[in-house]
Amino acid sequence: MGNVMKDNGSGFLKIIIVYKAVIGAIELGFSAVLLKSLDIAPELTMANVASNLDIDIGGRLMQMAAEKAASFDGYVFGLIAVAALAIGALNVIEAWGLHQRERWAEWLTVAATAVFIPYELYITISSFSVFKFMILFANSYVVYYLARHKELFRRRVEIEAPGA
Fold first, then answer.
1. Burial, 90: exposed, middle or buried (Cβ in 10 Å; 0-12, 13-18, 19+)?
2. Contacts of 113 (CB under 8 A, 6+ apart)
3. Up-side HSE of residue 79: CA atoms within 13 Å toward CB?
C-alpha cells in the first residue's frame, strides 16, 4: 500500500501544514534568541530583536513589549524561552505528521490547537483587535477542519498473516 491518496479536499490541509511549519520555525527561532540572551537584560534583548528585524523601537507596541520584558526576571525569561522552544517543536512535529498524513498528527494538532482557543477567545474579547480575531478564527477553523475531514489521514489496517 503506497503513500498515494486522493486529493479529496486536501488543499486546506496543505495550508495548515505550511502554517504549522512556519509558526513552529518562528517560535524555535524566537526561543533560540531568548535562550542565547538569558544573561542580558530582557528589555535589551527585545530592543536587539526589534533592531535586527527593522521594527521601530520607538513605536508604541515595542515600548509596551520592552516594559513588559523589563518586569521579568531571568528565571521567568528562561521559562518563556523554554515554553517557546516546546511549542515551536510541537508545531514542527504537527506539521511533519500532517504532511505524512499520520492519524496521531491529526489528533495531536486538534488537541494542541483547541487547548488554546478558550484563552484566545478571552484575550480577543478583553481587548479586541482584528489580528487577534483572525488568529482565533484560523485556529478554530483548523480544529473544525481536521476533526471533520478524517478521511485525509491513514487508518491503521490490521494485516492478517497468510494462512492464519
1. middle
2. 139, 142, 143
3. 6
Q: Which of 23, 74, 84, 24 is CA-nearest to residue 45?
A: 74
pTM: 0.75
Number of residues that this document lists for the chain: 164
* Contact call for residues 13 and 5 (beta carbons, < 8 A): no
Distance CA 14, CA 61 (A): 32
Alpha helices in the chain (DSSP H): 11-36, 42-52, 60-70, 74-99, 103-114, 117-126, 130-148
Provide the grid cell at 50: 526589534
Closest by CA position to 98, among listed 149, 134, 137, 141: 149
Cell representation of residue 151: 478521511
**Mind listing the pLDDT tens digit for each residue in 80-136?**
899 999 999 999 999 999 999 998 999 999 999 999 999 999 999 999 999 999 999
What region does 23 belong to: left with phi over 0, alpha with psi -120 to 50, or beta? alpha
Q: pLDDT of 4-25, one tens digit each?
A: 444 456 788 999 999 999 999 9
CB 56 within 8 A of CB 46: no
The residue assigned the cell 489521514 is 153
Interatomic CA distance for residues 73 and 77, integer angstroms: 6
